[in-house]
Amino acid sequence: MAQMKFMCDAERCIECNGCVTACKNANETEWGIQRRRVVTLDDGLPEEVSISVACMHCDDAPCMAVCPTDCFYRTEDGIVLHDKDLCIGCGYCLYACPFGAPQFPQQGAFGERGKMDKCTFCAGGPADSPEEEYAKYGANRIAEGKLPLCAEMCSTKALLAGDAQTVADIFRQRVVQRGHPDGAWSDNPRASVDDLAYDATRQG
Amino acid sequence: MHTANPGRRCGWLAVTLVLAFGLLLAPALLAQETADRETATAVVGVTPDTWRLVRSGEVDANFRDSRADSNYNLVNASGEGWRQWRNRWVSPFGLIAIGGMALMIALFYLLVGRKTLDEPRTGRLLLRWSVLTRALHWSVATLFILLALSGLNLLYGKFVFRPLFGDAIWGAMISASKVAHNYLGPLFGILLVVLLLKLLRHNLPSREDLTWFKKGGGLIGKGHVEAGFANGGEKVWYWLLATAGVAVILSGFVLDFPNFGQGRDTMQWANLIHALGALGLTAVALGHIYIGTLGTEGSFEGMKSGYVDESWAKEHHSLWYEEVKESAETPPAPAQSSPPEDGTLPQRPT
To answer: Chain A contacts of B162, Cβ < 8 Å?
Structure first.
C-alpha cells in the first residue's frame, strides 16, 4: 500500500499561494478556514525561503494520540482523517499538531470552537453519501484516482504529493541535479550553506 | 577479402568507441553544466540557522504566514512535549491518585470502620452551617461532581465507553461532557470563590492545628484532639481548594475562552495545570465525601440541616463547642421547624 506524503521543496517554492487557492477551491472550505498556508522565512532578505504547509499526515500523529473522542483514523494509504460527527471542538489536536493544521470555525459564543477542519489529502472523510462527504470534508479526489489539487496545481512543482517513495525519488533526483552527486549523502560542496531537509532528530 | 577485413573492423571499432564514449560522457557533461547553472542561479540555500529558528518556535519580523489571522509559527515543537506530558504522566497520575484514594478509603472503612459518637446524643442542637453556606456548599458540590465526571470522561472515556457503546452513543456522551464542562465550569469557579471567601475566617491556621496533625487527627493515640470550628484536616482541604482549586479555575478560564488571543503554548500549560490540579482534587474530594458521609456519624446531618448534635460538637470541635455551648437549643418535638426569628436562635461563632 502506498504511504501518502506531502513534501515541499523549499528551494522551489515561490510563494505564489496557488496551492492555497487550489485547496480552497477544491474543497470549498467555509469562511475563515484555510487548510493550506504558505510560510515565508526571512522575508525580503537574501536568504528568504517559502514553504507550503498543511496537515502532513504523520505516521505517529500527535492529534490522534491526544483526541479525547478518538475521532481520528488513518486510511490504508497512510492518510490521517477525522470524523466530524465525533469531534467536540476541544482544540487538543491544535495544541499537539506541529504544523498548525487543525482549524476551528467560530460558530458559538465565547470563542467556542466548532468542529475541527483540516487537510484531508483530498481524501474526504466518513459520510453516508458523496454529497454529505463533500459538504463536511471537501473533495475526495483520492477515490477518483487523483492526487491533492494543491500539489497538482503547483506551478513550480515545489509541492509534491503522492507515495512517499515516489516523492523521495523525485526529490533525490533534484538534489543530485543541484550538485550533490551522490544524493547529498556525503561530499556536499555547499554544505556550509545548504541543509537539504530539516532533520528533527538532530538537536541544536 | 582477408586484407580488407581488419580495416573494416578498425573502422567499426572506432565508430563504436566514439559513439560509446560520447554516450557515456555527454550526460555527465550536461549534468555538470546543469549543476553549475543550478548552483549559480539558485537562491541561497536554507541555512541551518533558519531551521534552528523554526525549531525554536520563535517568529521574527521577517516571518510571513499567508493564512488569515494566523499567529502560528512554522513548527510547533512544544506540541509533542505537551502530548507526552499529558499522555504519559498526567493520565496515569489521575488513575493512580483517584484509584489509590478509592482503594485506601475502602480499606480504611473495612479495617477501621465508621467513627461513631462516643457519648449518646444529648438532643440539644447547635447551628453549624447557615442556609447560605449550605446552599453554596451543595451547589459547588453538585457542580464539582458533574465537572469531575465530565472531565474524567474527556480524559479516559474513549478507552471505556467508545468500545462499549459504539460511536453514536459515545459521540453524544462526549459532546454532552464537553458542553457541560465548558458551561458549568465558570459557574463552579465563581461559586467556589464565594464559598472560599465566606469560610475564610474559620480556616485561618492556628496553634492547635499542629497538635491535630501530630495526632493524625485522632488516629494516633486515644481520644479526640482539640479543634476549633474547623480542624486541621478541614483546613487542609480548604487551602487545597484555595490554591489548587483556584489554579484549576484560572487555567480553566484560559482553556474555556480561546478568543483572547492566547497561544497554543499558553493553552498547553493551562491544560497540564488544569488536569493535574483537577485530578488531584478529585482524589482528595473522595476522602472529603467519605469523611462527611459514611465515615463520621453526625457530620452529614450538619451540612444537611445546618445543625449538629451537642455530643458531636464536643467530640469533634471541642474548642468551638466551648464557645457556643450556651446557644445549644432543644428543638420542638417534630424537628425541622424553622428557627424562630426573635434573636434567640443559636449564633454561629464569630
So the answer is: 69-70
- Decide if A51 touches B, using CB distance below 8 A: yes
Contact B45 A195 (CB under 8 A): yes
Q: Taking the model in full, what pTM does it have?
A: 0.83
Q: What is the dihedral of CA B151, B156, B162, B167, to 10 degrees?
A: 40
Burial (CB count <10 Å: 0-12, 13-18, 19+), residue A9: buried
User: What is the pLDDT averaged over residues A170-192?
Assistant: 65
A39 shares contact with chain B (CB less than 8 Å): yes
Give B71→chain A minimum CA distance, Å: 10
In CATH, what number is assigned to the domain containing residue B306?
A: 1.20.950.20
> What is the number of structural domains in chain B?
1
Range of the domain at B267: 78-129+203-328
Domains of chain A by residue range: 4-177
Task: Give the separation between CA B98 and CA B345, rounded to whole angstroms.
Answer: 41
- CB of A31 within 8 Å of a chain B CB? The answer is no
Which 8-state DSSP code applies to residue A200?
A: T
Where do we find the cell 458523496? A130
Across chain B, mean pLDDT equals: 86
Q: B12 lies in a domain?
A: no
**pLDDT of B207-259, one tens digit each?**
989 999 988 888 887 778 889 999 999 999 999 999 999 999 999 999 999 88
A146 strand-pairing partners: none
In a domain, B21, yes or no: no
B96 within domain boundaries: yes
Cell numbers for A9, please give them. Answer: 521543496
* Amino acid B337: pLDDT: 47
The DSSP call for residue B127 is E
Q: Which of residues 147-166 of B touch A (CB under 8 A)?
A: 154-155, 157-158, 162
What is A4-177's CATH topology? Alpha-Beta Plaits (3.30.70)
The residue type of B211 is T
Q: Which residues contact B234 (CB under 8 A, 6 or more apart)?
A: B203
